[in-house]
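Researcher: First entry.
Model:
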Amino acid sequence: MRCNPPLTLNIKNNEMNEKVIIKKIQQGSREALGMLWKSHSTNVLNLAFRMLKNRDEAEDVLMDIFVSVPGKIKNFRGESALSTWLFRLTVNECLMRLRSKKRHAELEEGHVELLVTSAIGSKHEEQIDYDPELLEFGLSKLSAETRSMLWLKDAEDLSIKDLSEIYDMPEGTIKARLSRARTVVKNYLQENLNYA
């Protein structure tokens, strides 16, 4: 009896391995789905939490995404990275939940510095004495979709191309929305903070 070796895949760094894991999931492999979970569940959970600002809801989204993967992966065309596809599923699920509840997310305090720097530029980083609540109010001026876009670009370091695939928008639109978002937050902070 021939034994198949265990799957050892590094999804983020190897396109060939990504194709193998997709094929295995399509064939019903729980092991492959488990490896996908190991590689991507933290990022999916983080994105869901940043959009929903509720740990329980973010965990629900995480579970819903991974429960739906075996059925939805049949529609995955492989034109983007598997991680990009998972981010898109996550964004869509979170936006659906936000729309249905008409809620607005708040900023997680642990990432305030990153978003302040993104909003007003690193040259001011040392000079700012900001109030995290004030930044939350500034970010609340943005839609949940735009906040998630800003997070994925600045904290997750996704490319404009990846964001274009996730949000199904032209790259120029993504760039314009990010620029406007930074301007909105920067203007809000400038109106409410004293910094040079």
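Researcher: Second entry.
Model:
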Amino acid sequence: MNLSSHPPRRCVITASTGGAVINECLNNPLFKSLIHSVICDQSCGAADKARARGMPVEIFSESNNEKFCNRLLDYLQTHKIDYVFSFYTKFYSERIRRAYADRLVNLHPTLLPAFKGNDAWEYVQAYGVRFAGSTMEFVHERMDEGKIILQTVCPWDANRPAEFTRHRVFVQQCQSLLQVAKWLADGRIRTDGCRVTVRDARFDSCEFSPALDFPDALRFTCPVPAGCKESPGPVMSVN
């Protein structure tokens, strides 16, 4: 479904997680202005952080994923929600995937489709990759195999703790969410089959593809946590 000519009036965040990315991005006036509410399937850090930022929060505690998705879809349609930014850790039902095709935006902390699932970051470390990154996608027919909107990349710094690279990816995720929200708000994203295009996009960045062009996303920064800055000494091979 192509909504490029219909800029979003309302967006919802779904979450089952701690909400670190949500917490940072809700500091941004443009992003916060797009968010109608935050929907969680359980009490979690994301709900607490959203409330602290003054956002309406709903907890849909259901006995299974199908019931949660049915309730969520009813809510989205009742409130005329345009897009969903998803931090939900289960896969959406076919009913909601069809009703909100190309409108469920998933954020994933690795490069897809190479490293999928909720344990993806652990797999990235175990494989000894040379580059880490993140992906934003429209949820499609299979989990973590959606239509890619934007991807990021950064070299794995083997001379520092793994948390250092994870933090770099976290910052990229925050920047990506701010940027994609801006593109959606401006009606610049369209889909053609399984491909996603961004009107007037640039591809001249070594970190982001497409390149960031929203000043707030470009300026976003977050201090490296204590303990991630120093080299741990000689690094043992994982092979």
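Model: Note on the second entry: The first helix runs from residue 20 to 25.
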